Each structure stands twice: as structure tokens, then as C-alpha cells.
Amino acid sequence: MCLMYFFFFFIFSLILFVSSLMFLLMDLSIIIEMNLFSINTSSVEMVLLLDWMSLMFMSFVLYISSMVIYYSKEYMYGDLSLNRFILLVVMFVVSMMLLIISPNLISILLGWDGLGLVSYCLVIYYQNIKSYNAGMLTALTNRIGDVALLMSIAWMLNYGSWNFIFYLEFMKMDFSMQLISFLVVLAAMTKSAQIPFSSWLPAAMAAPTPVSSLVHSSTLVTAGVYLLIRFNLALSCNLMMILLLVGTMTMFMAGLGANFEFDLKKIIALSTLSQLGLMVSILSLGEINLTFFHLLSHALFKATLFMCAGCMIHSFNNCQDIRYMGGLIKFMPLTCCIFNISNLSLCGIPFLSGFYSKDLILEILSMNYLNMFIYLMYFISTGLTVSYSFRLVYYSMIGNFNFISINCLLDHGKVMISSMLGLIFLVIMGGSMLSWLIFPTPIFICLPFVMKIMALIVTMLGMILGMEFSYFSLSYDLKSFKFMNFSYFFSLMWNLPIISTFCMNYYFTNLGKLYYLKIDQGWSEYYGSQNLFKNFMNSSKFFQLLFFNNIKIFFLLLVMYLMVLMLFLF
Fold first, then answer.
1. What is the pLDDT of residues 493-524, one digit of tens each?
2. CB atoms < 10 A from the CB of 5, how many?
3. In the predicted model, is pLDDT for residue 438 greater than 80?
4. Burial 65-87 (b: 16+ CB within 10 A, else e)
5. Higher-confidence residue: 480 or 436?
6. Which of 314, 108, 330 is nearest to 223 (CA)?
7. d(CA 315, CA 298)
8. What is the DSSP track for 224-275?
């Protein structure tokens, strides 16, 4: 089954990529409307939008999915429910396809809810209490966005059709469209895990690593960004400013949190959160093509990073703590090589795929007339990205090996290695290829020399900071109370998981407990059901006494009747 879906997705992704190039060259955009059924005058239609953006995104999603499914063949080897797992991944990809090609809010909701439902099933795939909690947090946070989308569907009734693509620009100043755009932004913030809905994304790491590789690169988390790309014409200036602030703060918070985290998968998840913040904030500046460009290049290196992390976790007997790793370059040279290339691409090291989008984003931001806060947050967050990447490299590649002496660390698994090699060439060359395709005319950016090389300076500073931070955290007494509090606050993402779980649940469950004790089991029970039960029981006992002693009672009444008669007659 794995090989069948791998070949199908791989071939289909190539076809879609060639088609997207054709559409891009010819500047084509096709809308296909299929009338499913009509009742009286109301017709229910399935609408598909095919343009270069949707076709290219679909080709990337299918290519990454094909590699992930091939990778799962070995990673999930021996799993009793492998076929179920593969079918869940396929359902996930199909939901994403439906979301990508829909210019209609109803069909978008089908894909959107499909992603939410299947992601819940995949997060709780390993059945334990941690997975259930993580799955519930993921599902409930995403439900907020689903409700916002349902409300926007209701408001779209004012226009007589759910094909939002027709109304975005010329109905921009209408109150209904402003409300719809606000609801869509709320939905996108929950799906793309922006502040204050960020806590579910690291929790979703409870899913198997191939799922993390797919979810955190090109499918679930990018759905919100893609929806905003489609709705960009309807977004007002105020909404854009809110998005810019939220995206920038998310990027900063995730970058800071990743520097204090020790779980390998959570570090990469926080890195995804940081890049999502970057995408949302650059989108709010109106740079749609640039957001899409970064979305695609990020999908490539993030999927590869998760695959490498999966190989390491597999070799380390399911241990994910980076403090146990170290010196892996000696044991797993090929995996470490791929891991390093992906990490450097994430940092924006020149001429890897991440560089072309990140450098362009930072230079375009420097050209814009924005305040100092946003400028500083962007460059500090970029420095933090490099910092946690090099911290991760130090702990896994350079530092001392701290795992058990009897181990089996090697580049085993030809299938896993080959699926990573299938992505690594695109991680190296994909950025330049995409920049030539998406921006056929070169973008001329005129900046002072210091601002021009600011991205490079910040990268170098981040690299030094990451290495120094690693040395410091190893030499410093980690059991120090102050340092532990400091570390917990940042690694818990400014206490967002506590806010989104305890603050949402504690008071309501406590109220429920009080209601249960005082009302349900209290006076309501005493005067209500329990009282009725006692009355019925007493009356039934009385009637039972009568039925059991009916002859005695009859004779007793007869004697009493005779005595009364005798009294009155004599």
C-alpha cells in the first residue's frame, strides 16, 4: 500500500508542477463549476479554482506526502495498524487538496474540517494519556477557527453565493465583508497557531514523526496562511496591522522558546511556529507572492528536518532529549549531513533555499516605512532562529555523547535515507528555482550598506549566541532556582499552554463540581428526586403491607364493623 500511494502521489505531483509552470507562463486561471443538484431555484455547485498558485502548492504537498509515505514504510515497520495509518495520511492529503483548489467557503470548510478531524486521529495514534490530552487541545483550538468559518459562511448569504473570490475586492468596504474577513483571520490564526492559539502546535508532537513531517511542513499549519493569501484583497489596513503585530510576536515568542527547549521534536515544532509568524507578518505587509515563496521553501526544509529527527529518535530507542545526544556525526554521518543542510537552510545561510525567501523578506521589510519595534523584532527573531539551530547542532553533533554505551547508532534504513535524499536536492536548489519562477523580473532593493548586510550580521551574531548559550547551559548550575524559573517561562511559551488549558477548564470544572455537590447532590436531591424516591418507597411499603395482610385486615375490619353495629343497636 505504501509503494502504491508513493508512486501515485509522486507522478501526480510532477504532472501538477508542469501544469503550474504552463499556467504561470500563460497567465491562466481556470474556474470550474459543477452543478451537483438543484432544488427549485437553488443550485448546489462544486467549484474548483485552478491557477499557478494552487497547482504549484498541490504539487509540493503531493511530493512531500509521497516522500513521507515512503519514509513511513520503514519508520512504522512492524506497526499492526500500518494500513490504517497510511489511509489516515492519504485522507489528510485529500482534505488539503480540497482546501487548496476551493474558491468556495463551503468546500473550504469540508477540507478545513477534514484536516481538523484527521489531525486529531493522527495525534492520538499512540494511545496514551499524553496523546489524548494533546489531541483534545489540538481539536478544541481548531474548533474555534471552524466556528469562525461557519459564521463567515452564514454572513456570505448576504451576497447570494459562497464563491468569495468574486466579492473580495469590490465589496471590500462593505460591513459584511469586513466582518467575514475578520472571522477568516480568526480562523487562520487558530489553524496557523498564532498567539494566543499557539499552545496546540508543540503539543501535536505526540503524533508519529512522519505525521509531524507532513503536518508541520506543508499541510495543516499552512492552511491558515494559504486562506489568508486567498483573502488578501478583502483585508483592511487595521486588520493588516493587527496581523503584523500578532505574527511578529509569535515569531519572537517561538524563537525564544526554542532556545530553552530540550525535546528534539518540540524545538523543530517551535521553529515551525516561528516561520509561520514570519509568513503571517510579511503577508500583512501585502507581499503575497513572497509569503507563498517562503511557504514553499519552508515546507521543503522543514519536512527534511523532521525526517532526520525521526531517524535520530529511531536510533536512540525513542529518546527525544537532545542532552542524551552528541557526537552523532561519527555514528550517523549521512543523516547528520542532511540534518545540517536543512538547518542551515532554515537559518538562511546564503544560496540554500531558505536564504532566497528570508533575505528578500528582511530587505523588503527594511525598505518599508514601519516602526522600530517591528524592525527590531524581525531581526532579533531571525537571530534567535540561527541561535536555536546552532544550539541544536551543538547538542546533537559536537557535544559529548551521553547515551547508553550499548547502542546501535548508524545510518540504517535505506528507505528512510532515500526519502530524505529525495527532498535534500530541493532544499539546496529549490529556493533559486522558485525565485526565478515566482519573480521573473528581478526585484531591485536599494538600501544603505549596513542595512543591506544586516541579515548576514544578525545570522553571525545568532550563530555565536547559540554556541555560547550551549556552553553556558552546560557549565551553569541548571538546578539553580532562578534559572529554572526563567527557563520554564520561556520553554512554556510565556505560559500559553497553561492559559489555554487551566484558565479555560479550571473555573468551569470547579463550577461544575460546586453545582454537583450543592445542587445536584444537595437541596435539589433532597427536595427533588431523592425526596420523591423516599415518598414512593414509603407508599409502596404501605401498600405491600396491605396486600400481604389482606385477610387479617378484612377480619379486623369485620370485627370493628360488628362492634359499631352492637353499640348503635343496643
1. 777 777 777 777 778 888 888 888 887 777 77
2. 20
3. yes
4. bbbbbbbbbbbbeeeeeeeebbe
5. 436
6. 108
7. 26
8. HHHHHHHTGGG--HHHHHHHHHHHHHHHHHHHHHHTT--BHHHHHHHHHHHH
Span 45-54, pLDDT tens digits: 788 889 999 9
Joined grid coordinates for residue 558: 369485620
pLDDT at 140: 87
pTM of the model: 0.86
- Amino acid (1-letter code) at residue 435: S
Q: Is residue 59 scored above 90 in pLDDT?
A: yes
Q: How many whole angstroms separate alpha carbon 198 and alpha carbon 254? A: 9
Name the residue type at position 57: F
- Length, in residues, of the chain: 570
Residues 6+ apart with CB under 8 A from 177: 167, 168, 171, 234
DSSP letters along 393-418, please?
HIIIIIS---S-SS---S---HHHHH
Residue 224 grid coordinates:
491558515
Helices (H) and strands (E) in the chain, counts: 24, 2
430: part of which helix (H) or strand (E)?
Answer: helix 414-438
Find where cell 522543514 sits.
Answer: 302
Query: pLDDT value at position 294?
Result: 92
Q: How far apart are CA 346 and CA 298, in angstroms?
A: 7
Q: Is 480 helix (H, G, I), strand (E, B) or coil?
A: coil
